[in-house]
Amino acid sequence: MTARDGGDRTLGEAAGISSRSSSAATVMPALTVTISLLGLGLLWSLAANTWPSRAFPGPGEVWQVLLREAASGDLFYHLGATLGRVAAAYFVAMIVGSAIGILLGSYRRADRFFNPWVILFLNIPALVIIVLAYIWFGLNEAAAIGAVAVNKIPNVVVTMREGARALDPSYAEMAAVYRFGPLDRLRHILLPQLQPYLAAASRSGIALIWKIVLVVELLGRSNGVGFQIHLYFQLFDVAAILAYTLAFVAVMLVIELLLVQPVERHATRWRRRPA
Q: What are the residue ranges of helices labelled H in 107-190?
C-alpha cells in the first residue's frame, strides 16, 4: 500500500468519524428532550392520579380533548389565527425596532433625545397599550397586531442599539478603502456583526409576542387560542384550556427547532472554525 493510499484511507476514516460524531451530536439532544418530556408527563400523570380533581386533569384527559378539537377542525382554525397574528406582529416589531435601534446606536445625539421615549414605552404595561389600541382604532386586526408590535418594539430597539454601539469601526474603514457599495456594507459588514443581537431580539421576540397575542385575543378577538382559553375559562374546562395551551406551545417548539435554530446556525456558519 502506498503512502497516498494510506493517507486517503486516513482521511476517509476521519470523515467517517466526523460524520458519526455529527449524527450523535444531533440525535443525543433530541433523545434527551424526548426523555425529559416523557418524565414530565409521567410526573403530571402521577400528580393527577394522586390528587384527582376537575381543576387538575391528567394528560390522558387533555389528550382526548386535543383529539376532539383537532377532529372538529376548531384546533387548527384557532391555531392558524393566532400564528398569523404572531407572524405579523413579529415582522413589524423586528423591522421597525431594528431600524430605530441601529439609528439610535449610531447617532449619540438622537439616542440622548429619544432615550426617555424608549424608557417610557418599555415601562407601559402591555394591557394598557392593548386597551388603548382597541379604544382608539376599534376591535379589528390592525389594532390587535399594532398593539402587540408596539409592546415588542422597545425591547428590539434596546437590543439593536447595543449591537450598533458595539460595531467595530475598523470594518467600516476597510469597507471605505475597498469602496464597498451600500448592499455590500450591509451584507458583509453590518449584518455579520449585528447577527448575535438580531438572534437575541428574535428569540426573545417570539416568546414575548405570542404571550401578548393571547391577551389581545382574550380582550377583543372572536377567534384564536386566547379567545378559546377565555371561553373555556368561563366554562371552567381546565382540560380544554391545557389542550389549547399545550398545542400552541408544541407549535412554537416546532418553529424553534425546525426554523429558528437552523436559520441561526446558517447565519453563524462563518464563525465556526474549520475542523
A: 108-123, 126-137, 141-165, 169-177, 182-184
Residue ranges of domains in the chain: 62-268
The rounded distance, in Å, linking the Cα atoms of 93 and 202 is: 10
Q: Which helix (H) or strand (E) holds 251?
A: helix 238-255
| Cβ atoms of 85 and 149 closer than 8 Å | no
- What lies within 8 Å, CB to CB, of 86 at 6+ separation is 206, 209, 210, 213
* Spatial CB neighbours of 136, under 8 Å, sequence gap ≥ 6: 143
Pairwise CA distance, residues 77 & 19, whole Å: 41
**CB contact at 8 A, 156 and 103:** no
Looking at beta carbons, which pairs linking 11-20 to residues 24 or more positions away fall under 8 Å?
18/275
Give 53's strand partners. Answer: 56
- pLDDT (tens digit, 0 to 9) for every residue of the chain, 275 residues total? 554 555 455 545 544 554 455 454 455 566 777 787 788 878 888 887 787 777 788 888 888 888 998 998 888 999 899 999 999 999 999 999 989 998 898 888 988 999 999 899 888 888 999 999 999 998 899 999 999 999 989 999 998 888 888 777 777 777 777 677 777 777 667 777 777 788 888 877 787 888 899 899 988 888 888 899 999 898 888 889 999 988 888 888 787 777 766 766 766 665 655 54
What does CATH list as the number for 62-268? 1.10.3720.10
